[in-house]
Amino acid sequence: xxxxxxxxxxxxxxxxxxxxxxxxxxxxxxxxxxxxxxxxxxxxxxxxxxxxxxxxxxxxxxxxxxxxxxxxxxxxxxxxxxxxxxxxxxxxxxxxxxxxxxxxxxxxxxxxxxxxxxxxxxxxxxxxxxxxxxxxxxxxxxxxxxxxxxxxxxxxxxxxxxxxxxxxxxxxxxxxxxxxxxxxxxxxxxxxxx
Length: 194
Ligand code: S6P
Ligand code: ZN
What we know:
The chain has about 190 residues and is mainly beta. The chain contains two helices and 13 strands. Strands 1-2-3-11-6-9 form a six-stranded antiparallel β-sheet, with no helix packed on it. Zinc ion (ZN) binds near residues 101, 140 and 157.
């Protein structure tokens, strides 16, 4: 990715309908990159036989990663389920744990699932016009509960915060949001590793 050396003001467009920017290239997270993240990994493998698909895409502006800057962009999480689990983003802690983040939902319906290393779990609904504050120390994952619309949010965080994916990839989140009787339900993750 191209690194910006001397930062000037900038204006980046994000489309309110599809969340995409005509000014930057998005990062696409494919279904194949989500292997092992969902409860029903067999189902995921079965789905992959029909070809790979984009589960979500998001932007990294490539801004200098120093504490005075902000990382920002949109995340577009497409609708779908793997077994009874709704599509979600991988989720991560910030490498500098003591850094917060702000989300602002533009479109769709879902949740932001958050969890601290000590095991405190927070769940906030995302719907258009709602802004959710992710406190420092909390891992965060977007979950799309709509069966037709993408969940689109704008986010901003301290640019040097970094992303620790490994912890969630290894341990998972303590809780999962699944569909039971046509409704979202927060359950304990049976695969969670202490
Ligand atoms: C960055 C922010 C978002 C996510 C994006 C994709 O701190 O939280 O930009 O990176 O929603 O999710 P993930 O978990 O794959 O990074
Ligand atoms: Zn983050």
